[in-house]
């Protein structure tokens, strides 16, 4: 039997620039912040039986893998190794990236829309990491639908880390504020490439969720003031917290300030700027 090997690399995200409901009873929707500094990598070596190894990170189990392969109609036997550079439950897309990696390792050419549906069938909610430009989608994460295509974002820099306990997304959790007004403003600000306005809207989304979840004194708010950030970005259901700056304007003191406030696994990356 001819042995088959493959490898893949799936970028994660760092929280959401916007997340909430589209109207008081509308679907939960989000605008993801892609993060090339965090990812899931995987390798596949064909064999007689299916074995999934995640280095103790609990990214995806055997049952979930089999369910995904059934959904995308791929019969897979062999050893799959997955490794994430982001923590599970951090709000950086570890579980979705792991499922996307599994699909790609099988050689599947499934459309992103169909892969998203398969991921949701397995885990109940999904980040839009299977799409080429997730930050340009208003994404309904519980139903796997693109609600709107959005304008490209201007370039900006982000620095942040993970605060407090990690918390995996509960797909049944719909306790989010209404952000329909923010989405309307977001489209106008993105079209105008107004970074200050976009950062302010991201902050508003974050603060609405923090207030609803009774954590209005989150340390990232004080850090934004201390370091002169344009705004904040958070994982609305995880532990990721970040600061938004104009390109090349992250203060040298930012990493030390984040660490002193309790941040772990600090990352800095460029975002936006793609047409």
Notable characteristics:
275 residues, alpha+beta, Ribosomal Protein S5, domain 2, Alpha-Beta Plaits, four-stranded antiparallel sheet
Describe it.
This is Propanediol utilization protein. The radius of gyration is 19 Å and the shape is globular. The chain has 7 helices and 10 strands. The protein has 2 domains: 5-147, Ribosomal Protein S5, domain 2 (2-Layer Sandwich); 150-271, 2-Layer Sandwich (Alpha-Beta Plaits). Strands 1, 2, 3, 4, 5 and 6 form a 6-stranded mixed beta sheet that branches. 29% of the residues lie in helices and 29% in strands. The mean pLDDT is 93. With 275 residues, it is α+β, with helices and mostly antiparallel strands.
Distance between the termini: 45 Å
> Strand percentage, roughly?
25-35%
Domain count? 2
- Low-confidence segments, ≥5 residues, pLDDT <50? none
Radius of gyration: 19 Å
Residue share in helix: 25-40%
Remind me, CATH topology of the largest domain?
Ribosomal Protein S5, domain 2
Major sheet summary line = 6 strands, mixed
Give the overall silhouette.
Answer: globular
Number of DSSP-assigned strands: 10
Q: Which CATH architecture of the largest domain is right?
A: 2-Layer Sandwich
Instruction: Sketch the topology as an H/E string, one letter per element.
Output: EEEHEHHEEEHHHEEHE
User: What is the CATH class name of the largest domain?
Assistant: Alpha Beta
Counting DSSP H or I runs of 4 or more residues, the number of helices is: 7
Determine the structural class based on helices, strands and strand pairing: alpha+beta
Average pLDDT metric: 93
